[in-house]
Design goal:
Number of helices of chain A: 14
Number of strands of chain B: 6
Strand order of the largest sheet of chain A: 2-1-5-4-3
Shape of chain A: elongated
Helix content of chain B: 25-40%
Number of strands of chain A: 17
Distance between the termini of chain A: 114 Å
Strand order of the largest sheet of chain B: 2-3-1-4-5-6
Oligomer: heterodimer
Helix content of chain A: 40-55%
Distance between the termini of chain B: 13 Å
Radius of gyration of chain B: 15 Å
Shape of chain B: globular
Strand content of chain A: 15-25%
Order of helices and strands of chain B: EHEEHEHEHEH
Radius of gyration of chain A: 40 Å
Structural class of chain A: alpha/beta
Strand content of chain B: 25-35%
Amino acid sequence: MTGLEGKLHFNQKIQFITLSFDGVIIDTDNNLFSWPKNTSIYDAHPFFEIIKGFLENDAITQNEYSFPCIHIEEDNLERICDVSIKIDLKEIVVLLFDYTQKYNELNQIAQQKNESILKSRELQLKNEYLLEKENFKNNFIANINHEIRTPLTGIIGFTEVLEKTKLSFEQEELVRIIKRESNHLGSLIEDMVDISKIEAGQLNIINERFLFLDIVKGFKETYNRIAEEKGIDFEIIVDPNIQEYIIGDKTRVHQILNNVLNNAFKFTDEGKITFSITKNYQRTNKVSINFKITDTGIGILNKDLDEIFKRFTRVEHAKNRPGTGLGLAIVKNLVDTLHGEIKLISEPDKGSTFSINLPFQFDILKTSIPKIKKKKKYKLPSTKKKFKILLVDDEEVNQYLVMKILINHGSFYVDVAISGEQAINYIEKRFYDLVLMDLKLGVMDGYKATHIIRNHYGDKQIADVPIIGFTAKATEIEREKCLKSGMDDFISKPFEQEDLLQKIAKNIQKKTTV
Amino acid sequence: MKLSKKVVLLGHFGVGKTSLFRRFIDDAFSEDYKVTLGVQIKKKVIQLPSGIELSMVIWDTEGHQEIENTRKSYLLGSHAFIYVFDLTRKDTYINLNADIAYLKQHHPKVHIRIIGNKLDKVSEREIKKELKQESIPFDCLTSAKTNKNVSTFFNELAEELTK
């Protein structure tokens, strides 16, 4: 190829046009487009109307203009050109440089780039939507929990009342089943609330100083009995180097270990379950403790190892065992929340080992051992024959249940108010030893009624009456809200008869000693 | 009377400038996203009730995240800018006020109109509330897909350009 041939080839990609000042094509080589001479350039393509603008108004501040990447079509053919327009005193010269190929290549790159940005934005939107949906679901579970607790309180409470009546052997058995199933339903609700709280980031971690062996002691009692019933061995091994008192969320640690132990017992029919606790390391006031639960149960297939920590997941060969598939999901979430880690090693038909590392703190300087608080048993003061209780609740089932419990006990007279207003009315007229105040009432709720009782009366007998908040919302926030509003205590539904009686006795006793 | 006016579509990429352009010029719509490189130019003649025949020459420019990156020569001799943003993508309107200020500063005589597009994908009530909260001005909310408000918008612009 000669240099001239190369130049000619290159020249074929350029079109030269000369125009008059009224836009008529004087001359052109038609290398790219076939626009006839003596016709208006404005009819060739709307792009060229820009020239009209340059000539008509005072926009001309220069005499040469460059327009890159202009799409110009003629019939069905589109070329992408850089256009140069030069205006001088005699004529207008337009040069079209055809860069279709180059621009098409660039176009592909831009297409990929923009598409990937748009795609990622789309995914982000989808994630936001899913998150919103998840939050809605978690809030829904938390709210529905309140609605389920109320009837469940009735079922458990009346079962306990029924249990104490004269029953035949068959009836006793049936009551035992109702109680067991209701308690199971209660734990299931607790699990659902826990998981929704964890996922909504609403779980409060409450660190406290506690006697480490207390946790172990509880498990020893519970699981020794189950091991005996199942005819398997259960052993607990505790590293003596672990601090006597440690700081952590005792309740959540207990919940984690209880769920894993419960799981081990559920899937082990023969052999042994070993629960060993060892100190990993300690640095300044921090200590890492390993909890290992090894069983000789049915084990888990390799492919299911990651699945079992997902909620509502029940692996195939475990489906004939009771459970909802929430326990281990809660464990995983709680371990993550406590900044720990959990590992699982398992072999089908041989057993599983759950290894959990959890961080705790301990007091370096504190050497004195606080007195171990035993759960105190409260007794009603013997000064009176009967105590007057005002129950404020608008739910008929609850009214009946509490009345039944208190009247059967024999030490109480009970009045029932169905609203905050009615409660105030009663309190003004009669003396009460204690008020059981439901929180969710009609116009005047339990908090408002408590506030009025505490702040609007000079008569101390009214203003200082012990008030126990009585609600289906079993949350820490709710407890704090009760205490802040002036209540003395709090009891959540469903409750055990004994707990209710203990709370009443405790608060009446406290008032009497004051 | 015959008039010709240059109108430039501006805004981020993927906001639907080409879809609005195609909907108005050819009454067509495609779900496929095809990037615009450089500028496509088409003309539509609008017969106005006043008897004026307006040739609206529309420049559909390639999208840019920064208005300053729009090729200056594309804006020369313009009579109106239509700033288009995507109602589903906040990033396409978060800097709108600054972009409009830039255009007003450099092209004080040019009409500026603002369109929020893809109305079919959002709740009109919700998005209006959000735009109000974010202090995002707009002249019209459109859907090139469903043809909502597109021709009305361009016809009103045509009227305005002939005043």
